[in-house]
Amino acid sequence: MNKKPKVVVIGGGSGISVVLRGLKYLPVELTAIVSVADDGGSSGALRKEFDSPPPGDLRNVLIALSDVEPIIEDVFQYRFKEESSIGAHPLGNLLIMAMNEITGNMGVAVDRLRKLFNIKAKILPATLERVVLYGETESGEIIEGESNIPLAQKRIKRVFYRNERVAPEENLKVLEEADLVVFGIGSLYTSLIPNLLLKGVKESLEKTKGKVVYVCNAMQQPGETEGYSAVDHIEAICEVIGDKIVKEIVVDTREIPEEILKRYRKQNSDKVVVDKHELKKRGLKVRDRDILEIDSKGMVRHHPYKLAATLYSLINNWEEFYV
What is this structure's pTM? Predict the structure, then answer.
């Protein structure tokens, strides 16, 4: 039996789900390390009530990795009527919290649900501790809570935890053994960087035998990355883990229709400018690929299958796994 390359995707929110949705169909040993910094909506309420990591991003990853995704999505995203006592919560969140109560460990809970729904990829919470994310604006204001950081609508200097938080040993091990580590698309400061702040992650990324690749966001995010270029995204990441870990960046510099951009500009967003020369000056290999699409709502999205094919091609000596 041929050995499969090990691919680890780090992120949170809806962005990591897009990356995983395509990769799950490829012959790789896939692991998702998922942010648990969310404190808004149903996740925030459950996290507070049960004093546990929030389930929301983990729920979305379970859906994305399922082989019967539409069915699982219908079940996991179902909400009872708003006036009921559990009306605010997606059923998937309640299932995760129930399993967490049964096992006493969020990592074990998600792993049992993964097996229950015959999901082959590993799903690992970024930390098993309950964390509170803080943001510091360029003016020096401190904002408490992941959900509040983009709402402040102020340029972010950094995000941080008040106290040191630790990544589980299993997470560090899979990072070190990976053939490819992917920093997923999505919210830069509230979905990706919270994972990189955890103790042990930087050191494991320095030890990894595979390459580390960042999939750059296509569009700026209001409240987080307004006015950001691709270089700005990279610099924010390097502030946390140093400038020698990320080796490559995946972008799409093809034109976006002007009528689409006008809609984004009305929401204080725009296309992320990609200066290939500046990126290369930082020692990065720039992979410019046709990976974007416009969805039925006129939103710019990464195409999960095109993106997966691009990432698969970046695995070092990938052909050696199949000889």
Answer: 0.94
Q: Six-digit token pair at 231?
A: 């270089």
Residues 275-294 pLDDT 10s: 999 999 999 999 999 999 99
CA 226 – CA 14 distance, rounded (Å): 19
Token match 């006008």: residue? 262
Per-residue pLDDT at 1 exceeds 60:
no
Give start and end residues of each alpha helix (H) in the chain.
13-23, 41-50, 56-65, 69-76, 91-103, 106-116, 169-177, 193-196, 201-207, 230-241, 258-266, 276-281, 304-313
For residue 214, the model assigns a pLDDT of: 98
Select the more confidently predicted residue: 129 or 81. Answer: 129
Q: What tokens does 58 get?
A: 């983990």
Q: Are 16 and 109 in contact (CB under 8 A)?
A: no
Distance of CA 72 to the CA centre of its chain: 20
Instruction: Write out pLDDT tens, residues 254-263.
Output: 999 999 999 9
Q: What is the mean pLDDT of the chain?
A: 93
Backbone angles phi, psi at 249, to 5 degrees: -130, 135
Residue tagged 């708003």 (tokens): 82
Q: Identify the three-state secondary structure at position 44.
A: helix
Residue 199 contacts residue 206 (beta carbons within 8 Å) = no
Neighbour-count burial of 105, counting CB atoms closer than 10 A to its CB (0-12 exposed, 13-18 middle, 19+ buried): middle
Largest CA distance in the chain: 59
126, burial (CB in 10 Å: exposed 0-12, middle 13-18, buried 19+): buried
Listed residue (224, 193, 169) closest to 12, CA to CA: 193
What confidence tens digit (pLDDT) does each residue in 157-205 have?
A: 999 999 999 999 999 999 999 999 999 899 999 999 999 999 999 999 9
CA dihedral over 170, 5, 246, 195, signed as positive or negative = negative
The residues facing 211 across adjacent strands are: 180
